[in-house]
Write a structure and sequence with these properties.
alpha/beta; SH3 type barrels; five-stranded parallel beta sheet
Amino acid sequence: MSKKGKVLVAMSGGIDSSVTAMMLHEQGYEVIGITMKTWDYTSSGSSTRETGCCSLDSINDARTMAVDMGFPHYILDIRAEFGEFIINNFVEEYLAGRTPNPCVLCNTHIKWDALLKRADMLDCEFIATGHYAQLRKENGRTIIHKGIDQTKDQTYVLWGLDQDCLNRTMFPLGGFKKTDIKQMAKDAGFYDLANKSESYDICFVPDNDYRSFLKHRMPNLEAKVDGGDYIYKDKKVGKHRGYPFYTVGQRKGLEIAMGEPVFVKEIIPETNTVILGDKDDLLENHLRVRDFNLIKYNSLPEDFIGLTKIRYKDAGTLATINTIDNKLDVIFHSPVSGVAPGQSAVIYEGDDLVGGGFIERKTIPAL
């Protein structure tokens, strides 16, 4: 047993998780690599070549790295748990007129749970992943802090982790830039790894075409929802292909000529209606957040002011936040555009992740 401890490293076969394992191994930890098989691409109906963290090539790459470095590697098949929870939720959210956040749910309910269970079985004190984030202890809590490479920061998808998970988690890459990680791989002789392309698609939608995925999962869906109304300025202006195939903020692919750009403002599944609006119609000053999890504080201070991000690539907007009826009430200091129910609202204080939750649907308007 290493004096530093025993750590289970989640290895996807990509450069980040591979260098994570390599770093910890070189630092003297007793490393065990594990690759989670979350999805079978043949089940997606996609014609795209199997790529990403669940592909056979990626699993083999992770195993090769472990063998080369001299530590054990295991494959964990969690397709059943992943499909029952993540895939079902993904479909249900679109059917409810919301835009799902599968990566957040997977981290919170599937991957960390699976890693910690296997870590206990293998007597590992810690688990580690290749996320670009940092951890520190303060006031008896483990706090997530942004990684120093702001272009790669991944704290947005980590808001759902609880203190028990964080107390056993390591993020070795948080103090490095992506260019540093690539150089480490090259210096260690892993040139193919350093030049390996990265996938940013949802793992179970490899071609990034969620509409085809929904149709494959529910063959009768298109026929049931086709022909709903587009509403613009309280008037019917055309027919759409079915409300689940649209997202708030969408402009392209609407297949309607209005003489000027229009966007999806709201989706009403109860009436199979898609509300359109101008760019300014997408602006919102207020939202409610459900199922929130706090990381930095045990309870949110009254009239807390924090930077709130409503999507992964969002720069964030200052807002005053209070807890009301077990939900977060967020009032923005300046309007934000394209608030999509189902997406995550994530709150920061400086570079510290305060917490987050899911954006709630607004009250259904009368038509």
